[in-house]
Write a structure and sequence with these properties.
3-stranded parallel β-sheet, 256 residues
Length: 256
């Protein structure tokens, strides 16, 4: 069982051979779950609640990325769910910014791009500010972590992000002097929305990852088998001594 780490903590506990011992430098896993929508037209998908219930049951923490244009016409029940489950309010989820609209675009040269890959600086700044503002307006919460749609960004993104100074952590971003970048080493999804325990175990054995281990999932698209494989991965990591933290908790631990 992954043990709960609420808020900022300086001492961690691991179950090793049935005994509890202190660990100064634990192996940390960060669960990165993409694509929360909470609007009347784009409702919160059941998979997010299922994984959140799993986290509560197992006394652990997770993170979920919000696509914020859905909050232009919010669904009251879904917004209430976000507020209730936010780690700031005693829940198990750190909600992070996953862009304004998550749309693909055409770059100026005609090639394919995305929200933060190929759009101009002013557009990116507007998307950051609009997203941060509408999320805070609806939830009274503040984003601290950003993860770009499709994990794609360009030279404008780091500059544009300055309009939201609270964004101090960046999933899968480039090297950045202002922010803590959370990189990727191995995957648990073999395709978007499809988890494979076997492929994960093979990758883990071939390249034992360093901490923090960020694992991305699209839980709204998971079928029963993908969910079961996720649980197997979580149980495997627990036995290997990995402890869950949110991006914010990881960043705070670096300051200690």
């Amino acid at each position: 069982m992954l043990k709960l780490l609420f808020k900022s903590v300086t001492v961690f506990a691991l179950f090793v051979g049935g005994a509890v011992c202190a660990a100064e430098s634990p192996k940390v896993v960060i669960w990165k779950f993409d694509d929360v929508r909470a609007g009347e037209k784009a409702r919160l998908l059941p998979g997010f609640k299922k994984v959140s219930d799993w986290a509560v049951k197992n006394k652990t923490v997770i993170s979920m990325g919000v696509i914020c244009d859905s909050l232009a016409n919010p669904n009251a029940d879904d917004v209430a769910w976000i507020k209730k489950n936010a780690i700031e309010n005693g829940g198990c989820v750190e909600f992070w910014l996953h862009g304004w609209d998550h749309k693909k675009i055409k770059k100026a040269d005609g090639s394919d791009g995305s929200e933060f890959n190929g759009s101009d600086l002013v557009t990116q700044q507007k998307h950051f500010k609009d997203a941060c503002d509408i999320f805070t307006k609806n939830t009274q919460l503040t984003f601290n972590t950003f993860g770009a749609p499709y994990n794609q960004s360009d030279e404008n993104t780091a500059v544009a992000m300055d309009v939201c100074p609270n964004l101090t952590n960046w999933f899968f971003g480039p090297k950045d002097k202002k922010r803590i970048v959370l990189g990727r080493t191995i995957n648990m999804e073999v395709a978007t929305g499809k988890v494979s325990y076997e492929k994960f175990a093979e990758a883990y054995k071939a390249k034992t990852p360093t901490s923090p281990l960020v694992l991305q999932g699209h839980v709204g698209q998971w079928d029963d088998q993908s969910y079961k494989d996720f649980v197997k991965i979580a149980d495997f990591l627990s036995k290997e001594g990995w402890t869950a933290k949110t991006p914010r908790q990881w960043a705070e631990s670096l300051k200690k």
